[in-house]
User: Which sequence fits this backbone?
């Protein structure tokens, strides 16, 4: 029988109304009690709960580090993990785990729900049960079929570092616009084997990160002359328009020069969730060519942000950062 850890971090899936009428996380036993289907699975479940289950909007990098360390401690004892997590920042956590672990040979399947587990019409039960089934999938040699961090939601298994939360009210809450789904669940589970991540690295965990990353979203009317270039930004993600476009304005160029002068690495990431940054396509974007700028290509915003934190944590020089950022570390970017 496959042995799968069930790690509960919080999120709507395990919430109920508190005395103020607000949704707050309940303890793990109460969550498990509400899913009798767990007992019917032909899987040995190892329950694990973080010290304090949280609403995932309270997520901080220190919790990613704690979570990764907990997972690392379980790695030899189980065949895979199911991670219950709030949907709000699930994609960020998926990115963090996918970059912290190298050479994963076991699945880390994240899931949650839009309605709490005890509520009529909840999506929690299907999500948890299918997440377990994917976590327990093995080939004829007994190796895990999924060997990466994935998000299971509403009949689809997505690569975690390619997904983002697209809806706060539909059950189909996640989307992976730049990479096809890894698998789907219908009457049976159907896996797209060719799309699965396989690593040649040996297994390791590195939880270092540095959150000195700034974000500026361009919009018509943004006053660049009044926009400070903060000296504590080691990386600035510039959320440009469309295929990585920006205005041709002197104030914008001066802002970029101020940022560059601080030694901040600038990354061009588009506000569009689908498609890639294609620098140099439009004349209007010529200011972007006046400074040294990295291109997030078709990475999600979540992925570009967390990858920046992870690479900064590794203490890379600017030149090393420029070499490593565009590379695919765990399937987050197309070549
Ligand atoms: N606020 C909740 C959370 O992210 C939302 C959810 O789980 O769907 O923890």
Assistant:
């Amino acid at each position: 029988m496959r042995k799968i850890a069930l790690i509960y971090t919080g999120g709507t899936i395990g919430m109920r109304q508190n005395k103020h009428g607000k949704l707050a996380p309940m303890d793990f036993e109460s969550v498990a009690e509400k899913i009798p289907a767990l007992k019917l699975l032909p899987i040995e479940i190892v329950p694990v709960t973080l010290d304090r289950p949280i609403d995932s909007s309270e997520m901080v990098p220190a919790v990613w580090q704690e979570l990764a360390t907990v997972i690392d401690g379980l790695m030899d004892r189980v065949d895979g993990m199911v991670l219950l997590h709030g949907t709000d920042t699930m994609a960020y956590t998926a990115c963090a785990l996918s970059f912290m672990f190298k050479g994963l040979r076991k699945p880390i399947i994240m899931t949650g729900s839009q309605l709490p587990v005890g509520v009529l019409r909840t999506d929690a039960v299907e999500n948890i049960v299918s997440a377990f089934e994917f976590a327990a999938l093995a080939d004829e040699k007994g190796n895990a079929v999924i060997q990466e961090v994935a998000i299971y939601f509403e009949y689809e298994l997505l690569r975690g570092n390619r997904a983002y939360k697209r809806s706060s009210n539909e059950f189909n809450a996640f989307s992976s616009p730049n990479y096809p789904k890894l698998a789907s669940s219908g009457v049976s589970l159907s896996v797209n084997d060719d799309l699965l991540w396989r690593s040649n690295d040996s297994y390791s965990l590195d939880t270092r990160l540095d959150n000195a990353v700034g974000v500026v979203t361009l919009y018509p009317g943004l006053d660049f002359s009044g926009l400070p270039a903060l000296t504590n930004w080691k990386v600035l993600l510039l959320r440009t328009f469309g295929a990585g476009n920006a205005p041709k304005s002197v104030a914008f160029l001066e802002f970029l020069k101020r940022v560059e002068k601080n030694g901040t690495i600038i990354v061009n990431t588009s506000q569009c969730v689908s498609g890639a940054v294609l620098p140099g396509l439009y004349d209007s974007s010529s200011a972007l060519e006046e400074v040294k700028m990295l291109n997030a290509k078709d990475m999600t915003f979540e992925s570009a942000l967390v990858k920046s934190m992870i690479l900064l944590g590794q203490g890379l020089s600017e030149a090393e950062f420029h070499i490593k950022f565009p590379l695919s570390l765990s399937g987050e970017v197309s070549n």
Q: What stands out?
A: The pocket of aspartic acid is lined by residues 10-12, 55-57, 86-88, 112, 114 (CB under 6 Å). The chain is about 25% helix and 25% strand. The mean pLDDT is 94. Residues 218 and 330 are 29 Å apart (CA to CA).
